[in-house]
Design brief:
Structural class: mainly alpha
InterPro entries: Entericidin (IPR012556)
Number of strands: 0
Strand content: under 5%
Pfam family, one: Entericidin
Largest sheet: none
Keywords: Cell membrane, Lipoprotein, Membrane, Palmitate, Signal
Protein name: Entericidin
Family: Belongs to the EcnA/EcnB lipoprotein family.
Length: 62
C-alpha cells in the first residue's frame, strides 16, 4: 500500500469519527436547532455589547 492510500484512509476515518461525535452531541434535529439558535443569540449579544462600548467610547449614539 502506498502512503497516499494510507493517508487517504486515515483522513476518511478522522472525518467519519468527527462527524459521529458532532452528530451524537445533538441527539435530535431539535437539539441541533437549539444549538444553532444559541450560537445566534450569543453573537447578537456580543454585537450589542460591542456597539454599546463603541457608543460609550466615542460619545456617539445611534
Amino acid at each position: 500500500m502506498s502512503t497516499k492510500f494510507i493517508a487517504r484512509i486515515a483522513l476518511s476515518l478522522a472525518l467519519l469519527s468527527g462527524s459521529a461525535v458532532t452528530l451524537s452531541a445533538c441527539n435530535t434535529v431539535r437539539g441541533a436547532g437549539q444549538d444553532v439558535s444559541s450560537v445566534g443569540h450569543n453573537v447578537t449579544r456580543g454585537a450589542t455589547a460591542t456597539q454599546g462600548a463603541i457608543d460609550r467610547h466615542t460619545g456617539v449614539s445611534p
